[in-house]
C-alpha cells in the first residue's frame, strides 16, 4: 500500500481529484483484503466524497456499492439494508438502462 500512498500524494499535489479518489478506492480494497473493514470504510467514504464533488455518477454508484459491501462484511445488517436501499435508488437514478434490463453490474450488491 506504500506505492498507493505515494501515488496519492502526487495526485494531491497536482490537484487531480479523480485519480486521488481512485487511490482511496484502491486503499479501501487493500484494507478490506487485510481484514480491516473500518479503515477500508474510511477510504471508501473519502472516495465517495470526491466523486460527489466531481459529480461523477458512475463512480459514486461504485463507491456506494463498496460501502454497502463493507457494512455487509461487518455484519451490520441494519446499515447494510438501509444503506443498500438508499444506494439502489441513487445508483439506478445515476445510470440509465432500458426498462426490463437488470441493474448495471456495479449495482448488483446493493
Q: What would you note in describing this structure?
A:
With 110 residues, the chain is mainly alpha-helical. The protein has 5 helices and no strands. The chain has helices spanning 2-14, 17-33, 37-54, 57-73, 77-94. Helix 1 (2-14) packs antiparallel against helix 2, helix 2 packs antiparallel against helix 3 (37-54) and helix 4 (57-73) packs antiparallel against helix 5. It is flat, with a radius of gyration of 14 Å. The two termini are 27 Å apart. Residues 95-100 and 103-110 have low confidence and may be disordered.
Query: Helix proportion of residues, in percent?
Result: over 70%
Mean pLDDT: 80
Structural class: mainly alpha
Percent of residues in beta strands: under 5%
Spans of 5+ residues with little confidence (pLDDT < 50)?
95-100, 103-110
Task: Specify the biggest β-sheet.
Answer: none
Task: Provide a quick synopsis of the model.
The protein has 110 residues and is mostly helical. The protein has helices spanning 2-14, 17-33, 37-54, 57-73, 77-94.
Features:
mainly alpha, 75% helix, 5 helices, 110 residues
